[in-house]
Amino acid sequence: MAQPLMPKATAVWLIEKTSLSFEQIADFVQMHPLEVQAIADGEVAQGIIGYDPVANGQVSREDIARCEADTSARLSLAPNAVPQSKSRGKGGRYTPVAKRNDRPDGIAWLLRNHPELSIAQVAKLLGTTKETIEKVRDKTHWNSPNIKARDPVILGLCTQSALNVAVTAAQERLKAEGKAVPAPLPVGTDAE
Description:
By secondary structure, the chain is mainly alpha-helical. It has helices spanning 7-17, 22-29, 33-41, 61-69, 97-100, 103-113, 119-126, 130-138, 152-155, 160-177. The N and C termini lie far apart (62 Å).
């Protein structure tokens, strides 16, 4: 059985606002009846403001009235009262501090060796921003004189399989658009 939100605060509210027995409240909030009695006596949960389970959709007023009339009845948590967990987006990828200075080198390598990759693909692959990619491409990056094009797989910024998938997707996109797949620049030339 799911537990209501803020069980102690819910117990405080149920003690103050209803005539439910300690056992009924304890069963609903999944606490021991003696702990609920201690809350009622003021020994536990001093200063906790009651949390209204009716206003928050955890239980109905009718269910409370039914249980007040019959001491053997038990409150039941409303099925939609428990919030559903939200799936998180991937968000930004964490790059260790030691590898952050290698990112521009990986960007330069991708721009030179895989010009078919879009800026968005490079950003996703290396976990960087479009602005950083543009600065490396335009040679306006703050560390531009020290950037050396190095393979991001060797640097540990991405996996070879992720790089292969991105390159294949970029080549298929260009073929679908009817554009020629650009050849990588010869070794020894700078990225443009």
